[in-house]
Amino acid sequence: MIALFMKAETRSVVHALVVAAIFLGLPAVAGLEVCAADFPTLGKTGRLAAIPGGSFVMGSRVGGPDAQPREVRVERFRIGCFEVTVREFVDCLNAGGVTNWPGSPQIVKRGSGYSACWFQAPKPVAYVSAADAENYCRWLSEQTGKTVRLPTEAEWEYAARGGIRHARYPWGWGKPEGRACFNDRAASHVGSFEPNSFGLYDMAGNVFEWCRSESGDRVPARGGSWGEKDPRFLRVFHRVLFPRDYRDADVGFRVVVEEEPGP
After folding, report:
1. Chain segment 183-206, per-residue pLDDT in tens
2. What is the mean pLDDT of residues 135-150?
3. Do the Cβ atoms of 256 and 133 come closer than 8 Å?
4. Which CATH number fits domain 8-83+121-258: 2.30.130.10, 3.30.450.20, 3.30.310.80, 3.90.1580.10?
5. Does the N-terminal or the C-terminal CB of the chain have fewer CB atoms within 10 Å?
6. Which pLDDT tens digit goes with each residue over 68-95?
7. Taking the domains of the chain in order of start, what are their residue ranges?
8. 239 φ, ψ to 5°?
């Protein structure tokens, strides 16, 4: 697959239009290609959206006690346009980036290496603990020379809202049918639905996504999953705390790459 590169000048125009959308509360920035192949050898993981910093109201009055609205500011950052796929996680396993892997229905061990099971390679990797996701980020940092990590909850929610003020879903408002993978039998291939205004795919449904946690035995995850029957669990402010060692079919992750300080 030929990687698509975005020049710095083009990114500046995109940033300006996205910031204008945030200021005006527009529902979308139509027709913009905000994903750039920053690391073209890494497949979909290497496609990142540059998110402008800013302030927003995190949470909602209809959220739980730990998701009440409050003003939060985030600095600019880059985030994966897609959830990390099985294919990409297999590359990490075969390079020794994640050790003591217990195996999963998505990935099979063949001899001294690992392979994706049939039809699993383009799906979001699941059955990964928070530690597995953090180890993947460390491995990717070594491969790229950049600081790669999981998003904070504030970064994740800011990115998921796509610049739409008070949005309930990544697309704004409206029913999730046809817009996200939920109430289904399994996750879809990453990128099967339309992205939000920041160019991010599957910020609702498909798999929950691990977020950064500094301490504690429970780690936050966002976005809901393919197994949710109630669409309220796909709302951008909905959060779940899983045990740090939780591994199942409904949780995966995407990466953040920290922006280098400007001149």
Report:
1. 999 999 999 999 999 999 999 999
2. 94
3. no
4. 3.90.1580.10
5. C
6. 778 889 999 999 999 999 999 999 999 9
7. 8-83+121-258
8. -135, 150
- Environment class of 111 (CB within 10 Å of its CB; exposed 0-12, middle 13-18, buried 19+): exposed
Buried b (16+ CB within 10 A) or exposed e, 60-79: beebeeebeeeebebeebbb
Specify the length of the chain in residues. 263
Tokens matching residue 13: 């125009």
First to last CA, the chain: 34
- Report CA-CA distances (Å) from 120 to 22, 98, 99, 150, 246: 36, 19, 21, 23, 20
Count of H helices and E strands in the chain? 4, 13
